[in-house]
From TrEMBL:
Main location group: membrane
Protein's name according to its UniProt entry: MOT3 protein
PANTHER family: MONOCARBOXYLATE TRANSPORTER, MONOCARBOXYLATE TRANSPORTER 3
Comp. bias (Basic and acidic residues): 504-521
SUPFAM superfamilies recorded: MFS general substrate transporter
Biased amino acid composition, Acidic residues: 469-479
Compartment(s) of residence: Cell membrane
Superkingdom of source: Eukaryota
Natural source organism: Galbula dea
Keyword Ubl conjugation tagged: no
Amino acid sequence: MGRCDPEEGQLPAPVKPPDGGWGWIVLFGCFVITGFSYAFPKAVSVYFKELMKDFHVGYSDTAWISSIMLAMLYGTGPVCSIMVNQFGCRPVMLIGGLLASAGMILASFTTNIIELYLTAGVLTGLGMALNFQPSLIMLGSYFDKRRPLANGLAAAGSPVFLSALSPLGQVLLEKFGWRGGFLIMGGLLLNCCTCGAVMRPLDMGMKRKMEKAQDKYEAKEMLPIGGKSEEGIRTTDGIKKAKKAKKKPKKGKKLLDFSIFSNRGFIIYTISKFILVLGLFVPPILLVNYAKDTGVPDTEAAFLLSIIGFIDIFARPACGMVAGLKWVRPHVAYLFSFAMLFNGLTDICSARARSYTGLVIFCVFFGISYGMVGALQFEVLMAIVGSQKFSSAIGLVLLIEAFAVLIGPPSAGRLVDALKNYEVIFYLAGSEVVLSALFLATATYCCLNRGKKKEPPPEKNPSTGGGSDTEEAESDMQEAEEHSSDNHQPAHSTDNTVVAASEEANHVAEEQSREGGRCPEGDGEVLARDGCNADQTVERDRF
């Protein structure tokens, strides 16, 4: 993906997504990668108490390990986009799996907290980032009609792996200590390399076979008599080669396409997503401490997160199925707005919950709304920018989200320390999520839908550069159709007519050469005098 064709020096035309087949294997790999990327930074927190004892540091110092992982996952988005556009998804994911595993293995030999930041934080976080983004790009290239369902199933990897990695980490800690646990976790991360290996790009074999079959069909129509069909095939191949030689090579794909900022839908999505991330992650981070402060026992308080994860597992695929319905998919942006509104109102309505029953009800509704947001966020982005520009779009979006992640939860923690009141934090976080939902719905309706009704469709200018791969592919198809229509006209004449026409053209050319008005000659071609038009070429040797 994203690399030029070595034979022609041009970008390959996009292949139609199969919506199945090997795509289900790609979906499973994306499920595993999503689970590791989102659940691993949270699962590492099981080892924090032992790290505090061994390195004599505080909780805030050890919490920086997870923060650095998440910062690398979001902040290195443009770097991942550049690498994917340059080298393709599979090599980047293989390198990312090795880096993630190496980071945890090296972390098991560290002697101070700074070394943990560099190994488990930076190295492992970078490795997971190099796996997460390419897996979503490959998922979008393999699915089109079933893409909402595929995104929902892949997003379900996050709660599933969180439910599995946290207990596993506790068992490893009790039996092998934190060093042995880090070492085994590093071995588990090697599965990212396996997932990267199955991400094979859609080959161009099917497209080439279809072109070859079309050429043979055209040649048979031009020369229907048996022995001359092969000559017609060679004639068509010669014309195609001459056309490719005259055709200027197209520009390669940009390493990072900033032209997506001219897309109003992308701007609206980015702003709403920034506001959303400011408050989305605050309630689950503060929920356990909030429950403890209200008098809930520690074990029951920790179980609240398990409730959210369990509901989330089923909410994401279910929301993906709903988003894939024919009457819902054209309005998926409004469904995403509803999911954010649902989540924000859940935070606001549950801010005054004091009993354990009230907190359980909050976790059920928060798990549903949180799962809906997780299942739709990348589907909406793919629908806005398309699969061709998704690699650059997701990198830039994740970079912008990184700033919101670094602002939202830390600011909420400081407000809790200053005010000693969780109710205000829930009101604030819910208001931010509601604001993002209203902004997305309003801006989509006013700026996009009304704009489509008023503005006429833009005219395509083939002379301007910087077009998308889809537009370039469409222009190639139009040229091929024009060329095939020109070749179909001789198909209705007989061989004698074709031979007579060729002899007459050669006779005219010889008379013109005697008069001294010769046009430049090509390889085995005689060009007509008037304008030396290449479309009027006649090949002597073919007849």
